[in-house]
Amino acid sequence: MGKTLQKGDLIPDVSLKDQEGNLIDLPSLVGEKALVVYFYPKDDTPGCTAEACGFRDRYEEFADMGADIVGISSDTVGSHKKFADKYGLNFTLLSDCNGQAEKEFGVPRNLLGLLPGRVTYVFDRAGKLVYSFSSAMKATRHIEEAMEALKV
């Protein structure tokens, strides 16, 4: 596992495919907007669905605060597409099949290292980390934490 990102660190230079199969370079997403990047364990599971729908429902508030949202898990592009379509998700989901982003961000694993962690990172317009929150159990708390971090 790589180092855990610290406040002030730049967003890792990672490129992943979105739910439409487009290759997205994470650093290209900052600049005009701040960026909320959240890692979650699995598409269409209860906690992850609640978290994704929470971000979906508050998307306009994030946009009004000058931020965009990106969800990342190890699920496939096809799985992300089904998940996004099923719940009407209005933000980008990225497929980290090989664990590259998880490693670059230093996302901790849970349950004896078997499950990917649930961590939210907030980057400013300059691409610098301003806040991170890690909680496997409090899936919907990630939305509130990210919202608070953007208000600062």
Order of strands, widest sheet? 2-1-5-4-3-8-9
Label the overall shape: globular
Q: What share of the residues does DSSP label as strand, in percent?
A: 25-35%
Structural class: alpha+beta
Mean pLDDT: 91
Main β-sheet: number of strands, strand sense, barrel status? 7 strands, mixed
Please give the share of residues in helix: 25-40%
How many whole angstroms does the radius of gyration measure?
Answer: 14 Å
Q: Spans of 5+ residues with little confidence (pLDDT < 50)?
A: none
Please count the beta strands (DSSP E, at least 2 residues each). 9
N-C termini distance:
30 Å
Please outline the helices and strands.
Layout: E1 15-18, E2 23-25, E3 34-39, H1 46-57, H2 59-64, E4 67-73, H3 77-87, E5 92-95, H4 100-105, E6 109-110, E7 115-116, E8 119-123, E9 129-134, H5 141-151
Parallel strand pairs: 3-4, 4-5
Antiparallel strand pairs: 1-2, 1-5, 3-8, 6-7, 8-9
